[in-house]
Amino acid sequence: MAAAIILAGGQSRRSGRRHKACLHLSGERRSWIDRQVDILRQAGFAPVLVVTGHRPRRVLDCLHRRVGRRHNFQAGRGPFSTLQVGLHHPSDHGLVVPVDTILPPVPWLRRLRRIAHARNIAAVSPIDRWGSGGHPLMVSQCWSQSLCAVPVDAADARLDRQLGYLSAAEHIRLPWNHFLRYSRLNTRREWCSARHKLRSIL
Questions:
Q1: In whole angstroms, what is the distance from residue 105 CA to residue 142 CA?
Q2: 20-37 burial, b for 16+ CB within 10 Å, e for fewer?
Q3: How far apart are CA 192 and CA 188, in angstroms?
Q4: Cα distance between residue 127 and residue 151, in whole Å
Q5: C-alpha torsion angle, residues 120, 126, 53, 35 (rounded to 10)
Q6: How confident is the model at residue 131 (pLDDT cuts 50, 70, 90)?
Q7: What is the pTM assigned to this prediction?
């Protein structure tokens, strides 16, 4: 089984008083993070792990699913440190999911998992038709260990920099034209715009 790692270690300052993990889609009673957990489980990811950082209670108060939990006590050192906490000692391939990522449908997530297991590659990620995006990101156990070995204060202690070191054969980028157009949910305006479009996409 491949694990899913939801990164919720940021301060979520741009989303307003409530953490973005606690927002709701129109017509849904479950929180955004509960929705993420449900989709990941339907896609066959286990365990599902939530990694917190700044003010973890804001996230945990709206999490009503049984999941593994880890806390990044060094969240002030940046998001890469939260990633390393989530990837520490993975048992298999892992799916990295920033908490505000709009997940593709379940069959597409299963496709990511199958490709990662079928090929000897470091990472698999979706991109939109303009070549941007990159989450959720499927990472191999071997590459997870390499990421955890990067000093958190290094100049290249960023996931995009580490991905840039991989060759095209090591990092498979799958085009999918829909959900990545609405991948940012930082501000109230971005959230309101995306949640209406999500209903027609998913």
A1: 27
A2: bbbbebeeeeebbbbbbb
A3: 6
A4: 28
A5: -110
A6: low
A7: 0.88
Q: How confident is the model at residue 164 (pLDDT cuts 50, 70, 90)?
A: very high
DSSP 178: S
What token pair was written down for 114?
Answer: 């199958």
Whether residue 23 contacts residue 191, with contact meaning beta carbons closer than 8 Å, is answered with yes
Give tens-digit pLDDT for 137-155.
999 999 999 999 999 999 9
Contact 49, 91 (CB under 8 A): no
Q: Which CATH class is domain 3-201?
A: alpha beta
Burial (CB count within 10 angstroms: exposed 0-12, middle 13-18, buried 19+), residue 8: buried
**Could you tell me the residue ranges of all domains in the chain?**
3-201
pLDDT digits (tens, 9 = 90+) for 165-192: 999 999 998 887 655 554 566 666 776 6
H/E element, 81 = helix 79-87
